[in-house]
Amino acid sequence: AQSVTQLGSHVSVSEGALVLLRCNYSSSVPPYLFWYVQYPNQGLQLLLKYTSAATLVKGINGFEAEFKKSETSFHLTKPSAHMSDAAEYFCAVTGSSGYALNFGKGTSLLVTP
Amino acid sequence: SAVISQKPSRDICQRGTSLTIQCQVDSQVTMMFWYRQQPGQSLTLIATANQGSEATYESGFVIDKFPISRPNLTFSTLTVSNMSPEDSSIYLCSSKTGEEGSRADTQYFGPGTRLTVL
């Protein structure tokens, strides 16, 4: 089965600081990995995805993630946090049920002035 | 890409009643899914909505409680039956267009239906 684990249910950073949200995966096949963001009272928006092309993936809003097979990780980073980045972030992996996504528990990002 | 709308956006229902949630996609899609997001939790897959046939349910979810229809390639409904307070959640519709192959394909989400059961 394919699954992801997000380390840290809450992360707090100062505005302008580096954002690092951790995600580790477990997969019996080469994984396809995704990061989504959910703003309060909204649906999920795709930030970026890894589909076995480049290991460093750039997404929207200045976010990027690096696929590291040796570490089974797909951590999300942004060099400089903005107040508008405060949201819930979900890491996901393509599962086996119709290839629907299996989600991690999510990380709530708080950005302080 | 796919733009997904859901109706209603929110509802407050009484215990023992049923609610049907509608999901409309702006283009034909290969796969449609229904997820539940309980308060403060992640998303859990309820079922895959299959066009013209019975939905495929995940462990812990049954057709009698969550009947699903998918009459065509752009529309699906999820009914939450005989509701109890434990059913209070956000229900999200999702779809894949099939443009990039099954596993790599981006999954798009609707805005969700926020259900409160009293």
How would you characterize this protein structure?
The complex is a heterodimer of chains A (113) and B (118). Chain A is mostly beta strands. Chain A has no helices and eleven strands. In chain A, strands 2, 4, 5, 9, 10 and 11 form a six-stranded mixed sheet that branches. The radius of gyration of chain A is 13 Å and the shape is globular. The mean pLDDT of chain A is 93. Chain B contains no helices and eleven strands. In chain B, strands 2, 4, 5, 6, 9, 10 and 11 form a seven-stranded mixed sheet that branches. In chain B, strands 1-3-8-7 form a four-stranded antiparallel sheet, with no helix packed on it. The model of chain B has no long low-confidence stretch (mean pLDDT 92). The interface between A and B is medium-sized, with 26 and 27 residues.
Shape of chain B: globular
User: Looking at the chains present, what oligomeric state does this protein adopt?
Assistant: heterodimer
Proportion of beta-strand residues of chain A: over 45%
Order of helices and strands of chain B: EEEEEEEEEEE
Could you state the order of secondary-structure elements of chain A as H and E?
EEEEEEEEEEE
Helix content of chain A: under 10%
Strand content of chain B: over 45%
Number of strands of chain B: 11
> What structural category characterises the helix and strand content of chain B?
mainly beta
Q: How many H/I helices of chain A?
A: 0
User: Taking Cα atoms only, what radius of gyration of chain A do you get, to the nearest Å?
Assistant: 13 Å
Low-pLDDT ranges of chain A: none
